[in-house]
Amino acid sequence: MSTVLTKFDHWKHFLGERVKSAKQMGLSEETISKLAFEIGEFLDEKVDPKNDEERVLKELWDVGDTEERKAIARMMVKLAEKNA
User: Fold this and answer.
1) pTM for the full model?
2) pLDDT digits (tens, 9 = 90+) for 17-57
3) How far is 16 from 10, CA to CA, in rounded Å?
4) How far is C-alpha 80 from the chain's CA centre?
5) Class level of CATH domain 3-82
6) HSE of 34, CA atoms in CB hemisphere, 13 A
């Protein structure tokens, strides 16, 4: 298993680098957040959490409505940016 997927700190850094690249390519905050939401939907449906942090995020995602999920996605983008 990739270290990026099993270590949450590595995952945050990995996401941060992707957000940084997206901004450099000219994507807006809104577009990045929409993509984060779509990725969250995919992960929720297709990927089993690999660590405690991912399990908490999945549980929050599962109980949230669409607007709350969008808020989680926006917060993950912010967290990723902080860890880039």
Assistant:
1) 0.83
2) 999 999 999 999 999 999 999 999 999 999 898 889 989 99
3) 10
4) 8
5) mainly alpha
6) 5
